[in-house]
Amino acid sequence: MNTQLLICLIIFVATLVSFLLNKIPMWLTSMISLAALFITNCIDANGALSGFANTNTILMATMFVVAAGFRRTTLVDSMCNGILKLTKGSFKMAFLGYLILTALLSNFIASPMVVYAIVSPLVCALCDKANVSRSLYIFPLMVTAIATCGILPGPTAIQMSGQFTGFMETYGFEGMSFTPTNFFLGEWPVIPVVIAWAMLLSGKFLPASTNVELSEKKAASTASQLSPLSNTAGIIIFFATIVILIFSAQLKLQTWWVALVGSLCMVLFKVVDQKNALRDIPWDMILLYVGALGLGTALTNTGAGELIGNALANAVGGTHNNYILGALFFIIPFLMTQVMLNRAVSAVFVPICLLTCSALGANPIGLIMLVNAGSLTAFMTPMATPAVPMAMGDGGYELKDLLKGGWLISVLLSVVYIFYTMTIFPAF
Fold it and tell me: What is the DSSP letter of 425?
């Protein structure tokens, strides 16, 4: 183990300990971690500062403004009243409808963060309207957006299946192809399991209330009424932004640029004023995410991913047990993606998976599916995916809340993926 890798791992462990103790703000811990990584040469200046210009950072910040503008319109209240009326005043049924909507959108939009940004204003408004705690429902909403992504044979699955087919051809699995229906056949139980957990069990492990709800309600009560023009503009801008995001690939537009234009329009049409626009961006969550990006980059650059990957390849040895292989290729990427970018984890483990399958003479379809699922199922730390800091801002969560709220669904997903997926698509 080289010195840089050892130093990086020490900083990583210290960062997690500080997050858990919560003695200083998490954003401050994140920035101290970033500074330590730079001063110890675990990351260069470009790597340290790249998080500020990262497209996900821009997308996250600007979507906060777009969502905040939409929340100020009268349509949000009208939609909440209509949904409660349709469900005969049942908050649970209304929340179930939003979960189903989230699962559907996650299969048309490849970014769980964008899906969360679309639905979260409605759920926050629904919670406020029904006078229930946001903290009980924001986390399961975010998990649903992440865990159900790309399961149905829609645009997201089509995109991923093309990538995996290319990987298989590159590593010698010619004549084999990965199809969008593979995801559905091998993963469909995840959708009802996640929704059932969100409805019935998630609230038992989450805080009943947080300080963020008091500040949000106070801000809402003191907010000035929008003019009819601004109100209409806010509604049009929000839905136009969402529609363009959905079809951004076909329109050949960058998602961060679409969200940026949407946020600027919200200010130009006075849906939010300049001061409110800046206030609506949770800068502590942005700094937390920037520092997390730096830490993930350092873990990748110093060889932590390669180290773990090689250890995994040696661990599987010559085993022909489908479920042991499935457990290794799901659980290790799942744990790693909580602290590293999911693309980096996937880039490390898909080749390792294919090389292992080639050596063992195994069918790679199910195992690639598990690597992909493990790499994308990221919701236990703010470093996992941009949707997590957004949810922390809306729900007022601390790291311990994420761990406490996420352990059960993590176990359930592991069981489904390892035992069901490997039964449907066995390696041997």
Answer: S
Residue length of the chain? 428
H or E stretch including 413?
Answer: helix 399-415
36-94: per-residue pLDDT in tens?
A: 999 998 888 888 888 888 777 887 788 778 877 887 888 877 877 777 778 887 889 98
Token pair belonging to 68: 């905040």
DSSP string, 126-155: HHHHHT--GGGTHHHHHHHHHHTTT-SSSH
- Tell me, what amino acid is at 231? N
Residue 376: what pLDDT? 81
The pLDDT tens digits of the residues spanning 151-181 come to 988 767 876 777 778 778 776 787 787 888 8
Q: Report the alpha-carbon angle 113-196-342, nearest 5.
A: 30
Q: Please state, as a whole number, how many other Cβ atoms lie within 10 Å of the Cβ of residue 231.
A: 17
Task: Evaluate whether 301 touches 43 at the Cβ level (below 8 Å).
Answer: yes
CA distances from 112 to 56, 124, 167, 189, 379 (A): 11, 17, 24, 19, 11
Nearest C-alpha neighbor of 305 from the set 3, 21, 9: 9
Structure tokens at 287: 């700094």
DSSP string of 267-298?
HHTTSS-HHHHHHTS-HHHHHHHHHHHHHHHH
Distance CA 233, CA 77 (A): 16
**Helical segments of 22-111, H only:** 26-39, 45-49, 55-71, 74-86, 91-105
| Pairwise CA distance, residues 215 & 208, whole Å | 16
User: Can you give the pTM of this predicted structure?
Assistant: 0.72
